[in-house]
Amino acid sequence: MHSQGKGAPRRVLLGMLACLPLLIGLPVAAQDRAPPRPQSDLWFDPTQLPSFTGTVERYLINPRGETDALLFREGPQIVFPPDVAQAVRDAAPVGRPIIVWGIRARHAPVITMLAFAPNADSVPGVVDRFYWRLGGRSAAERAERISVAGTVKSPYFAPQGEIAGAILDDGTVITLPPGASDGFRDLLRPGARLAAEGPGVAGDHGRALAADRLGDTAENLKPVPVPDPQRRR
C-alpha cells in the first residue's frame, strides 16, 4: 500500500508533463493547424463586423457624377465614400462577388460599407469614415438638366433606410430632397412607371439627377416640394 502511494503522484506528474505543450500553446502538428489569415496593419480586425456577401450587379453614381453605391444582384444596396470607389471596383468588377463588412439599416436593405474584400482569403480594404451620402443626393452647381423615364427597379435608400428616390431598370438614379419622397410613394415602388427632370449628370458610368419634377410620364410631371427642415424635427 505504501509503495502504491508513491507511484500515484508520479503518474499524475507524467500526465501533466504530457499535456504541457497544449497548456502553454506550443505548436501542434502542421496538419492540425488552420491556415493563417491574411494580415493587415490595422489596429482592429474589420472581419469582426457583420458581413454581407453578394454579386455586384451594377455600380451607381450620384447627381454629382460620383460612384458611391453598388447593387447586389441579390437585392441590397451598398453605400461607400466616392474616394474608395475605384478600389471597390478593382476588387469586384460587375458580375463578380464581394464581401462587405458594415452596418445594415434597421428597416431597409441598405448597408453602409466599412470594409470590403473580393474573397475570404484577401486582406480587407477599409473605409476610414462613415458615409451618410447627404451631399451626393444633390447636384453640382453647374450640372446639366436631364430628363429621364423608365420603370422603377427599386427605391433608392439613404444609409439610414429612408427612401430618398428611385433606381430605374437601366441603373439611372433619381434622388429627392430629404423628406420629399413621402408624397410620391406610389411612383417609387418597384415596377412603377416613373419620369423625372432635374440637374444631374449623364455619361459612360450612367445617369443620375436630383429631381425637381416627378410624375408617371413626361407629360404628367409635377414640381417636387422641398420640405421645411424645421417641420421634420
Short structural description:
The chain is mostly beta strands and 233 residues long. The chain is built from two helices and 13 strands, in the order αβββαββββββββββ.
Largest sheet: 5 strands, mixed, barrel
What's the overall average pLDDT, rounded?
83
The overall strand count is 13
Percentage beta strand: 35-45%
- Element string (H = helix, E = strand): HEEEHEEEEEEEEEE
CATH class of the largest domain: Mainly Beta
Helix-strand makeup class: mainly beta
The global form is elongated
Overall number of structural domains:
2
CATH topology of the largest domain: OB fold (Dihydrolipoamide Acetyltransferase, E2P)
CATH superfamily of the largest domain: Nucleic acid-binding proteins
Q: Widest sheet: strand order?
A: 1-2-3-5-4
Residue windows where pLDDT falls under 50 for at least 5 positions: 16-39
* CATH arch. level architecture of the largest domain: Beta Barrel
